[in-house]
Hints:
Layout: H1 2-24, E1 45-46, E2 51-55, H2 62-69, H3 73-80, E3 93-97, H4 99-104, E4 126-128, E5 149-151, E6 154-155, E7 160-161, E8 164-167, E9 173-175, E10 180-188, E11 192-198, E12 203-213, E13 220-221, E14 226-230, E15 240-247, E16 250-252
Parallel strand pairs: 4-16
Antiparallel strand pairs: 1-2, 2-3, 5-8, 6-7, 8-15, 9-14, 10-11, 10-13, 11-12, 12-14, 12-15, 15-16
Amino acid sequence: xxxxxxxxxxxxxxxxxxxxxxxxxxxxxxxxxxxxxxxxxxxxxxxxxxxxxxxxxxxxxxxxxxxxxxxxxxxxxxxxxxxxxxxxxxxxxxxxxxxxxxxxxxxxxxxxxxxxxxxxxxxxxxxxxxxxxxxxxxxxxxxxxxxxxxxxxxxxxxxxxxxxxxxxxxxxxxxxxxxxxxxxxxxxxxxxxxxxxxxxxxxxxxxxxxxxxxxxxxxxxxxxxxxxxxxxxxxxxxxxxxxxxxxxxxxxxxxxxxxxxxxxxxxxxxxxxxxxxx
Length: 278
């Protein structure tokens, strides 16, 4: 009996020792339920930051994105530290302030103009001398002011001219050539007080050297709306309107896209814009 008792005590000690060893051995760590943060995909909500991240695709513009997400162009520019009139790059990631709340404000039938537009514009605006052929994409442009052309499009004595200069007296109203959204309104060294309006089809119109601007970034304008008055701010030698029409970053001769003026327009041999340095 004593021998059996000693055997029993030894077995109990072994079992107890095994339990102690098992208790002291660290168990395998439980799989974390927190996934590694990933960069939100296009349109995916980033709940931590309360914003959305949009990956720029071919044809995207700030105006179209602002309408799609229900925010202002100025809000997108501020969130991404973009300068007025800055061009977008395919693959560029933009923070869209307001996130899901902004998206919820967009009516169900609202759609981006991106699907209608050609590939994204190059970073530098280039001059196209040929007669453009856009088919049905061309908006109905009208003359922003009435007056003779004081400087034509294209090659000048000292530099290339990206638009036309229309001679007019100081204070004459400057009208939107066609409807769209204002993507820039402010002062630039060369253009002085300038307004830039984005239109359907990837078109952009530029109104420079204004004495005063009447619209702000994000405003929607209609054709013929007064957006400023003629001046000679910036690099200008006389009162006039410098007018440009661009499409996907390329500058075209506005005379090819405007109707015949009410009276025969002529070109006066004078440079009302100072020479361009870019």
